[in-house]
Amino acid sequence: MDKIYELKGHHIKVVLEPKLIRVYSNAQLWAYLEGNAAIRLKRFELLVNTIKADYQHHFGNALAISNASLIVEILVHVYCDYLGLHFNRMIPVKWIQQIVKKLLKRAEVVDCGEKAVDTNRWFWDLLAGGQLILISILPRKLNAKCIKHH
User: Fold this and answer.
1) Which end of the chain is more exposed for a tag (fewer CB within 10 A), N or C?
2) What are 48-70's pLDDT values in tens digits?
3) Taking the chain, what is the end-to-end CA distance rounded to the nearest angstrom?
4) How far is it, in rounded angstroms, from Cα 37 to Cα 33?
5) Gap between the Cα atoms of 114 and 125, Å rounded
């Protein structure tokens, strides 16, 4: 089920499925995540709490993923998307850019699943303890150079 959450004036695109959510790393999400680490942490918490509450409302049970694990998975995908777009701007070699574009397609859609459907959940759970460090390395303004257009 496709959802658009309006948070702080930004329209965040999410898909809800049983045991799985998909968050889209688009220009709206990037703009929503602007600010210092404290602001970003609060915004990530608002985002995952909103998604999880809606998920529970629609499916009648809680999404079995910790907030920290969700935050880290979304954050790492957004950061990989950001780095890939920057890389393609700086390296004008077409065949390399094509490889990076394929990787960017995977980074743009953040599939967050419960352990039963996501074989990588253990990895995100492992990184969850470092969420504050990871949030602090994310640039304050992700789209300062207008690299994300959609």
Assistant:
1) C
2) 999 999 999 999 999 999 999 99
3) 21
4) 9
5) 11
